[in-house]
Amino acid sequence: MRAIVWQPDGRLEEVADWPAPAPAEDEALVRVRAAGICSTDLHMVSGRLDFAKPPWVLGHEIAGSIERVGSRVVGWQAGDRVVVDPVIGCGSCRSCLSGRKYLCPDGGEIGTTTGSGGYGAYVAVKPGNLYRLPDALSYEEGAMMEPLNCTLGAIDRARNIAGARVAVFGGGPAGQLFAQLAHVYGAASVTLFDKREETLALGLRLGADEAVHLSLGGESQYGAGAVFDVVVEASGSVDAVRSCLERVAPGGTIVLYGLNGSDAPSIPSDRIVAKDLGVVTCISAPLLWDRGIRLVESGRVDVGAIVSDRVPFGAGAAFLNELTGRKRQVVKAMLIEEGADGT
Ligand SMILES: [Zn+2]
Ligand SMILES: [Zn+2]
Predict the structure, then answer these.
(1) pLDDT tens sequence across 218-239
(2) Domain Alcohol dehydrogenase-like C-terminal spans what residues (predicted)?
């Protein structure tokens, strides 16, 4: 099959005859129509995250259509439009049985730690990892369901959003989703902090009430005493973790979402104790996929507006090399199969 392969020399290269995944009798073969480019993928290529070794087909944000199903698959058929939950679990350990398959010791994530991912033309998936993509939604919106699922899980765990003053650090895709979700969950106000004008403007369009421009050092003149009931770290920056601790009100909640790739401690734990803070995070929310899809279908959350770059698959390798070489900046880039309904 055609695939964009992360090669041992650190470059991404389109290969015409990469082996397609062979689906088992209890799996479906999904033709990938849209695949999100995640900063996790870029961090893996740059060596900041070592989830897999090249050669490797990345991509865990996947929507497509079923090409064929194995003989033991019930309820799905060729042609069905689907969203893929990339997290795999054994299905029988304590973690899997308690709804946390992402902690399964024998589990993994398609495209990140196991299998062949969405940068290839096909992925093999068990029915338990498939969700129906409503007809009204594009494949591109379908591929955004994975980042939406993770951010939704984090907001859901923060619990006390209604009426809260919420701050979001980082206006990337996750930050844009957090700002919208906080708004939908009834926040009294949503304040977005970022260093880029374009992402702040986007945040204001999508649900943030105010946008604060940070200097390159991460400082801001924003009211020194202003505090927030819930602060979300969605930038992956160590500086932002510190800002979150300063800006959170006593008794408030910190949502740690971004990975910063530095193994050094970035949290003065005494301040968490002294301020009586709650700390939550989320890497996957297996029970919330349907809710995320409904939030988009109902128009409450706009995931399409976050996609800044739609890249035809054939141009994907060159585009990815520009991203990893830091020659290009995006909010959210999406690989789109040529001819698929991207929008
Ligand atoms: Zn991702
Ligand atoms: Zn398990």
Answers:
(1) 566 677 678 999 999 999 888 8
(2) 175-283
Ligand nearest to the CA of 103: 2
CATH 3.40.50.720 maps onto the chain at 148-280
Residues with CB under 5 A from ligand 1 (ion): 38, 40
pLDDT at residue number 252: 97
Q: Span 148-280: which CATH code?
A: 3.40.50.720
CB contact set of 279 (below 8 Å; sequence gap of 6+):
253, 254, 256, 272
Ligand 2 centroid distance, CA of 106 (Å): 6
14-49 pLDDT, tens digit per residue, is: 999 999 999 999 999 999 999 999 999 999 999 888
**Could you give the CA distance from residue 286 to residue 216 in angstroms, rounded to a whole number?**
37
Identify the CA nearest to 61 among candidates 47, 75, 41, 46.
Answer: 41
Return mean pLDDT, the chain.
94
Q: Rounded CA gap, 298 and 182, in Å?
A: 16
Q: How far is the CA of 50 from the centre of ligand 2 (A)?
A: 22
